[in-house]
Amino acid sequence: MARVLVPLAPGFDEIEAITIIDLLRRAEIEVVVAGTDPGPIAGSHQIVIYPDTALDAVLDVTFDLVVLPGGGEGTANLRRDRRVIDLVQRQAAGGRYVAAICAAPTVLADAGLLAHTPVTSYPSYRPHFPSSQYREDRVVVSDRVITSRGPGTALEFSLALVELLAGPDQRQRLAEQVLAPGVDHAR
User: Fold this and answer.
1) What is the CATH number of the domain that holds 109?
2) Is residue 134 part of a domain?
3) Is 105 a catalytic residue?
4) Residue 186 lies inside a defined structural domain of this protein
5) Taking the model in full, what pTM does it have?
């Protein structure tokens, strides 16, 4: 079974984080939510999440995928956290997947993972990717790096992660189950 880490920092975007966690768990993928700070973590709209564990407790654990939710303040907190930068660098160096949505692709850029790589982000963050191949697609999959634009693309992003880890049949099943746009729900 695939294992995924979702680090949460204060100010994370709730739609993005919860959609990622929920869809991956529906796909029966193990998801570990780790707080950068001890205790509950408040999102950008003051919705409080109780992480499964502290980030320090899982720094030496191997994950198939590390996914960074966005949110302006949450991303700023992730970017300042050396543990997160080291984590995504080790993840990439090990040939494993990294993913980020909204402002969070800037964390991957700070870690040196996006040079000459197709990438997308929340539109206002585009200037943060001068050496990347910036795209305006809703989800961009480039080898072992997956990025997406923002809260409105969180479902598509999460379904792309499900397909990556559990295959297209699981993606299709979940897309039908949650009535995702573009899926025939007449059955």
Assistant:
1) 3.40.50.880
2) yes
3) no
4) no
5) 0.97
